[in-house]
Amino acid sequence: MSAALTVAAMLARGASHADRRVRRLMIAAAALATFFLLGAGNLLTIRGNTYSDWAGLVTEEGLRGGTALALALLVVPPLALLHQAGRIAQATRERRLAALRLAGATPREVRLIAAAEALRVSVAGAVLGVTGYVVCQQAAMAALSVERTARYAAPVWLVPLVVAAVVAAGAVTGLLASRHVLASPLGVSRRAHRPHPRAVALLPLGAGLVIMAVAAFLPEGPGVTLQFTGGAVTVVGMVAAGSRLVLESARLAARWARTPQTLLAARTLQADPRSWGRTLSVIGLVVLFGTGAGIIQADVLDDALRDDSSTDPFWLVSFTLVDLALLLALAVAAVALVVHRAEWLLESRRSLAALTASGTPVSALRRTAQRQALIAAAPVCAVAALTGLIGMGAFTVLVSEPTTFVAAWSLGRAVLMTLLGIAAASAVTAASRRLLARAASPEQLRTE
Questions:
Q1: 365 near 355, Cβ under 8 Å?
Q2: What are the structural domain ranges in the chain?
Q3: Considering only CA atoms, which of 418, 408, 416 is closest in space to residue 383?
Q4: Residue 184 vs residues 101, 107, 217: alpha-carbon distances, Å
Q5: Which end of the chain is more exposed for a tag (fewer CB within 10 A), N or C?
Q6: Cα separations (Å) of 88 from 23, 77, 248, 431?
Q7: Which residues form the ABC3 transporter permease C-terminal domain (predicted)?
Q8: Contact by Cβ (8 Å): 313, 346
Q9: With the CA atoms of 344, 282, 121 and 9 taken in that order, what torsion angle do they form, in degrees rounded to the nearest 10?
């Protein structure tokens, strides 16, 4: 591995501007993952219980576990971005990989070099994340006039554990990003074919929904336990079902397509639904959690309306923090989707250039890309919102009596989260307009 690190360092010194930009993106993703993971671990190490209107999620012992879980879940979008950036970095390194193969490197050694490069950026990102967390924590405690700062500070022994976890995750993502790409000594890359996702991928999602629905008819004690179990199964199912949902949506769109742009978009998704499903699953999780959080907000606001009282500042602060966290996760997932789009354009540039050379206007390709995003994102976001409605709706029935206000607010929140998820996916097209125009240029047809 030391030789791989040495070669990776040499390659980094000769990197192009595009490679350095991707590396900075990977460092930022690793820093975000470290920030959230260190925050989750720090919350679990705090002992004692105090009351605070503005920091109850941290000061109250009974709420720290849930807050730590939320922070741990926020690690998922940065890791998805790190993996996606690693894939595009792998695609842009084809020439160097071919040169290494000519020099005698085996495919295994090439993959180790890719993992070593991911390891280097993960270490840099982890150090940056730890530094940022300490600075932000000290600034927050100073702003809130916290006296016993040592009580809330992250213990020293936790830092190397978090750094090691993020670095290991970075190395694994580097290996995963390169496992389907083999570079021949002649510079020809071959991406291993993967079969379409099967319908069985939808079973965990359905099982989770059934478990949560059954929990609503049980006594509160075992019902709550079963509800959390169903929620965990549903989260796993949402990740597993993303690619299959994209595939089914593409098949339906291709069957009912009335324009060439829609048909091309659907057929492209049918050819490779996993790449879209992988990133859209993260957006789906954000939509799911956002819908569930909206139901909790509706329940609290309904209690305040019935009691004719103002909402406790603790809830207002908590709701604001949750919504900000959801928007941040959605933004990171959207960036990962932009990186995925850049990877696809890099791989498909000769096909796109051939379409342009044969007379297809770039504007038509842009409309195709827009419809591709809509076809892929709409079912994932809609199913995620419906899952959140059913899951948290069953939980609300279990612990309280929902009113018309709660139902209306929850439905509106589900629609809002669905639209936000689709808008985030559609914004990818606008963000990649220049990349599409460059990839579709007939100059890409030149043989180098």
A1: yes
A2: 2-191, 199-445
A3: 418
A4: 7, 9, 60
A5: C
A6: 10, 17, 26, 16
A7: 87-183
A8: no
A9: -30
Q: Which amino acid makes up residue 318?
A: S
- Which of 223, 253, 202, 6 minimizes the C-alpha distance to 112? 6
Over residues 290-343, the pLDDT tens digits come to 998 888 888 888 877 777 666 677 778 888 888 999 999 999 988 888 888 887
HSE-CB for 432 with a 13 A CA cutoff: 29
pTM of the model: 0.84
Whole-number Å distance between alpha carbons of 426 and 326? 18
First to last CA, the chain: 33
Q: Which residues contact 189 (CB under 8 A, 6 or more apart)?
A: 91, 94, 97, 181, 182, 183
Helical axes 76-92 vs 273-307, angle rounded to 10°: 160
Q: Quickly list DSSP for 56-111.
A: HHHH-HHHHHHHHHHHHHTTHHHHHHHHHHHHHHHHHTHHHHHHHHHTT--HHHHH
Instruction: Specify whether the CB–CB gap between 85 and 25 falls below 8 A.
Output: yes
In this structure, what token pair is assigned to residue 446? 């030149």
Q: How far is CA 392 from CA 236, 288, 299, 385, 433, in A?
A: 16, 10, 11, 11, 39
Please state, in angstroms and rounded to a whole number, the distance separating the CA atoms of residues 278 and 344: 13
Q: How many CB atoms lie within 10 A of CB 46?
A: 17
Q: Which pair of structure tokens corresponds to residue 69?
A: 């879980």
Longest distance between any two alpha carbons in the chain, whole Å = 77
Token code pair at residue 416: 């809002």
* H or E segment and range at residue 299: helix 273-307
